[in-house]
Amino acid sequence: xxxxxxxxxxAVASIGTAHAQKVVTTEAVLTHYGALVHAxxxxxxxxxxxxxxxxxxxxAAPSEAGLEAARKAWLEAREWYGQTEAFxxxxxxxxxxxxxxxRINAWPMDExxxxxVDGQPDAGxxxxxxxxxxxxxxxxxxxxxxxxxxxxxxxxxEFMLWGQDRYADSAGRRAYTDFVDGKAxxxxxxxxxxxxxxxxxxxxxxxxxxxxxxxxxxxxxxFVKDEAGIGKMLSGIGVLTxxxxxxxxxxxxxxxxxxxxxxxxxxxxxxRDIVANAxxxxxxxxxxxxRLDGSVLKGPSLRDLVAAKNKAVAEKVDRLTDATVKAAExxxxxxxxAVLIDNSGRKKIEAMVQLLKEQAxxxxxxxxxxxxxxxxxxxxx
Length: 381
Description:
This protein is an all-alpha fold.
C-alpha cells in the first residue's frame, strides 16, 4: 500500500514538473526571438557574400557563364533575405531612424534613373561620366527627388544582372557584353557600379547581423528586456501580413496588372519573394527557423504564449500561417503574367490575398489574448 501511494505521489509530481516545464514566459520568447533574428540575418549575410564573390568574379572578367552564376547567387540570397522582412515595422535596426531598409530593398525602381532602357540609350547616371560611381555618391542618390529613384540594394543589383524585363515568357535578358569594354558604352562604369552596390548590400546586412548578435551591447540586448517587445513582434508580422505583403506587394499588382508593380520584376522572382515573406511570418509566430545549413532553430514562441491563454486562437493562427505558405507556393511564375485578368493563375493570387487578410484578423485576436488592445496591421504612414 505504501509503495503504491509513493508511486502515485511520484507520478503527480512528475506531471506537475512537466507542466511547469511547458510554461513559457515573455522573457523566454523575447530571448529566443533575438536568437532567431540573428540566425536569419547571419544566413542572409552569408548568402549575400556568395553573391558578392560571384559579382566580383564576373566584373573581373565578364562572360555569359559569370553572369549566370551571379544571377543564381542573387536568387539564392533572396530566399534568406525575404524571411527577415518579418523583423520590420517596429522601429528596429532595419527600419528605425537611420535604418538601412530603404537602401537595401526599396522598390519599385525607375530603371532609367540608373542605366539605359529601351528608347533611351543614354539614360541614367551610369551614362553620365560626371557622376562619381562610389559608395557615398550612390547612397546620396538613392531615393533622391523620388521614391522610384533607386540606386542601391537588391533591386538595383537585380536590374544590373537581368536588365529590363520586356518578355512574357522569361525574365530580363541583359547581355554580358554590357559590361565589356568596346562592346557597350560606359561598360567600365557599369562594372564598378555593380561591384559597389553589391559590397554596400553586404555591409548593410553585416550591420544588421551585428545589431542582433549575442553577448553584445546592441539592439538585441535592449530588445529582450523591452516590455513592449511582444507587441513589436506581433506588429512586425501583422504589418507584413496585411499592409505590405497582401497590400503593397500583391493587391497593387492585381489592380494595375502592371509589370512595374511587381516586386522582383527584372528576374521574375516575385513568386519566391512572396513565399519567403510568408515563411518569415510563420517563423516568428512559431519560433522556428530552418537555417542555411539545414539545422532547425526552435524555442519559446508567440504561439506558446497565446496557446497558454486561448488555445483556439493559437490554433487558428497556426492553421493560417500554414495555409498562406502553401498558397504562396502555388502562385505560378511569372507573377507579372499570373496577375492578368485572363490568366488562370490570378485566382491563386487572389486566394493568397484572402488568406492573408484572414491571417491579419487572427493576429489581431492573438494580440488581444495577450492584452494588446490594438494591433495595427496597416503600413506606417
